[in-house]
C-alpha cells in the first residue's frame, strides 16, 4: 500500500508503472514502434523498495513469441549485445533499462506496435514475485520525472 503512494508522490504517471509485489515496481515502461513479426524493444526502471535483493529471471508477453533481457555495451569502440538470464535488483535500489544498456527484446511480435498502443508483460523474479507491466509505445523515452540511486 505504501509503494503505490510513494510512486505517485514521485510523479510517475499511472500507465508507466504497475502494482508493486514484494516491494518491486516497474516505472516508466515504454517501447518503440515495431512491425508485426519483428522485434520490439522494452525500456523501464525496475525498482526494489524491499530490504532484500531479488533477481529478474523471466519475462513473458502475450504480444510476443518470447521476451529476452539483453545488455548492450561498448568495448574498445565496438558495440556488443549479450543476453542476460538473471538480473539482480539490489535492495533499496533500481536497475534502468534504456537504449544502449539493459533492454528487453520482444521477439516475434504478434501485432504491430504503434504509438499510443500498450504492450503487456509479466515479470517473474527469483523470489517468486510477479509484476504485470504495461509498456507504452512511443517514439522517444518518457520525460524523466525522478531519479533512483
Q: What is shown here, in short?
A:
The protein is mainly beta and 149 residues long. It is 5% helix and 50% strand.
Structural class by SSE content: mainly beta
Structural Rg: 15 Å
Overall average pLDDT:
85
Shape: globular
**Name of the level-1 CATH class:** Mainly Beta
Determine the CATH superfamily.
PCu(A)C copper chaperone
What does this structure look like?
By secondary structure, this protein is mainly beta. The protein has a single domain (2-137), classed as Immunoglobulin-like. The chain has one helix at 2-9; strands at residues 24-31, 39-48, 54-60, 64-75, 78-84, 87-89, 94-97, 102-109, 118-125, 130-137. Strands 1, 2, 3, 4, 5, 6, 7, 8, 9 and 10 form a ten-stranded mixed beta sheet that branches. The longest helix is centred in the N-terminal third of the chain and has 8 residues, at 2-9. The chain is globular, with a radius of gyration of 15 Å. Mean pLDDT is 85; it is low at 1-20.
Could you give the topology of this structure?
Layout (H helix, E strand, L loop, with lengths): L1 H8 L14 E8 L7 E10 L5 E7 L3 E12 L2 E7 L2 E3 L4 E4 L4 E8 L8 E8 L4 E8 L12
Parallel strand pairs: 1-10
Antiparallel strand pairs: 1-2, 2-7, 2-8, 3-6, 3-9, 4-5, 4-8, 9-10
Which key terms come to mind for this protein?
149 residues; mainly beta; Immunoglobulin-like; 10-stranded mixed β-sheet; 10 strands; 50% strand; globular
Amino acid at each position: 500500500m505504501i509503494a503505490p503512494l510513494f510512486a505517485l508522490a514521485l510523479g510517475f504517471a499511472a500507465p508507466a508503472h504497475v502494482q508493486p509485489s514484494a516491494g518491486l515496481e516497474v516505472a516508466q515502461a515504454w517501447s518503440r514502434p515495431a512491425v508485426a513479426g519483428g522485434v520490439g524493444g522494452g525500456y523501464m526502471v525496475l525498482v526494489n523498495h524491499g530490504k532484500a535483493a531479488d533477481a529478474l529471471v523471466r519475462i513473458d508477453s502475450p504480444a510476443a513469441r518470447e521476451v529476452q533481457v539483453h545488455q548492450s555495451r561498448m568495448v574498445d569502440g565496438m558495440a556488443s549485445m549479450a543476453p542476460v538470464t538473471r538480473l539482480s535488483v539490489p535492495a533499496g535500489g533500481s536497475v534502468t533499462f534504456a537504449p544502449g544498456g539493459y533492454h528487453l527484446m520482444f521477439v516475434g511480435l504478434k501485432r504491430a506496435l504503434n504509438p499510443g498502443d500498450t504492450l503487456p508483460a509479466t515479470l517473474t523474479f527469483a523470489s517468486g514475485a510477479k509484476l504485470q507491466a504495461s509498456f507504452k509505445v512511443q517514439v522517444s523515452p518518457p520525460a524523466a520525472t525522478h531519479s533512483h540511486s
